[in-house]
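Sanity check record (used in CI):
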Amino acid sequence: MERFFKIFPLLNQHEVGLERFGRYLCTKIADFADTNYQSMVAGGGDAKRNNVLYADTLTLLFEGIARIVEIHQPLVELYYGQDKMLILIKHLQGECDVQTEKIVNVFIKNRQYEGKAKLIDTYARQATKYANLEKLDALELDVLLSEVTLMHTRAELYMRFLRRRVAGENAKERDGSAHQAQHHPAAVTAQIADAKADRQKRLDQLLNESKLGRRMQELLGQYIMMEQYFMSESVKKAVAMDVREGNSLTSSMLDDIFFIVRKCVRRSLSSSSIDCVCAMLNNGVAMLETDFFVALNQGIK
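Expected output for Conserved oligomeric Golgi complex subunit 4:
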């Protein structure tokens, strides 16, 4: 297939060639993704990595696609032109969406992710009505939330890789652009900048509308709610377990609560999402100004 791949540009059938080549590469992606999927369903090969089994499977998928892009990008740019790389990525992203959907669905089912999110949401909306019901233990969420942030981080790294590739951040283009800019600095610089901006805009639209982008946003939206619940319940436990010695002015509650808040904020930072970090910072500040302030004020009185 790779030999015939070079013929299509000579026939002025660039898109046809890229479409067929894309389908060929998608079969390769499907093959190694299926192998990784079967290993995931079987429980993985390393028991120590079971807590991040689904994040690791997604990582293998992204790394495999990135390797394909890295290997074949020089061929596409040589025979088809750099502006055509986005067409090939569009085909590869379609297969990436299919495989991502399979992995995320199994993750949600086996980790009971949506069930736990709905339970927390129900309790948060009607806390008084369900006050007598047994709550979800916050400790059960600790490992789960870490895996979600890891999944989102790996997806962000994959998207950044694609953006760099589509923007043409490679030595060949930099050398070519520098050579052209020496002879036609103003015209070439403007042309290159416009071409990069257009490619980036189309790629951003592709990724935002992809199943990968949507599923990651859905997971992250539920993560923020669950992280807030984890922080709130953990703080309540820290207040309830407060230990003081005699007339001492020190309290174990202070260290425990600030440790919890720091842990939640750091975990949100590891998600590589600005919106997620801002949301958790707001939640942390709100918790310190309400629950923590009340508990601290009672101790002072």
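The chain has one domain: 4-217. If this sentence no longer matches the regenerated tokens, the check is flagged for review.
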